[in-house]
Amino acid sequence: MVSQGTAQATNNIDLSNTPMIDTCPQMNKDVSYKADKCEFTPERWESYQTDFYIPEQDHYAWNCTDIAQDHQWQLTDVTQQTNSLGISGELGLRLFDEVEAKLRLAYGHEWMHGKWVWTGNTIHVQPGRVGWLEMAKEMLKVTGKWEMNYGDPVAFDPGGNPGGYHYAWTLFNYWQVDAKKDGGRTVVFKDRDMTPEERDRICGDHGNGPGEEVQILDNGLRTTPLPATQPDLLKPRTGE
């Protein structure tokens, strides 16, 4: 962060213990002193696909029959936003709106909001095998700076560098990441052989081992829940 407009005044405001971004009018945060204006300027953007992960409503499909069976999944993906300052949506909604507005104006890109639902093609699960789906999604990251202006000279670290009391401060290298609107998603089918223990537990007479929630479908496939995972939203996929 840097400062401008060094001043000597009797109404200096010491904000040493206050995060700079919390003083912005767009933040839903109670602080002792608010900036008159905070403005975001985007400086660069990038898009990339995440590593593969397990989306919501995914599940294992176990083929306990002697022939290949068809199965269709429906997946749900909820957008996630993260930023360099760890600001939650509850506190920073208007702040995020400004970042997206400036992103759209400067580069013509937007983030996705709400849920993404996928109903894919029918997939063949071979006998004696278990199948599931994994997905990667395209993220959009914007990096820029926040410029803050104050009615009185304020200090965020009077004893530090640059320190001092100033009417204007700049917070550099703020970034924000979310799923790209109309961005690509890659859904892949994975499968493997059942282990003998799994075959006995899933395909046995009861088909319901300890802790398993087994649903038997009309074609003989059996499904069990598959807990969702989350990708590293800041890490571009390096390989298949």
Give the arrangement of secondary structure elements.
Blueprint: E1 2-6, E2 13-14, E3 37-49, E4 59-63, E5 69-71, E6 74-78, E7 82-83, H1 89-107, E8 115-119, E9 123-125, E10 129-155, E11 166-179, E12 185-193, H2 196-203, E13 215-216, E14 221-225
Parallel strand pairs: 2-10
Antiparallel strand pairs: 1-11, 3-10, 4-10, 4-14, 5-9, 6-8, 7-11, 10-11, 10-12, 13-14
Describe, in plain words, how this protein is organized in 3D.
The model is unreliable at 5-9 (pLDDT under 50). By secondary structure, the protein is mainly beta. The two termini are 39 Å apart. It is built from two helices and 14 strands; from the N terminus they run βββββββαβββββαββ.
At a glance:
The protein is mainly β.
Using the CA coordinates, give the radius of gyration: 26 Å
State the low-pLDDT regions, or none. Answer: 5-9
The overall average pLDDT, rounded, is 88
- Classify the secondary structure makeup into a structural class: mainly beta
Q: What is the β-strand count? A: 14
What is the distance, rounded to the nearest whole angstrom, between the alpha carbons of the first and last residues? 39 Å
Total helical segments:
2
What best-fitting shape do the alpha-carbon axes yield? elongated
- Beta fraction of the residues? 35-45%
Q: Give the biggest beta sheet.
A: 10 strands, mixed
Helical content class: 10-25%
The topology string of helices and strands comes to: EEEEEEEHEEEEEHEE
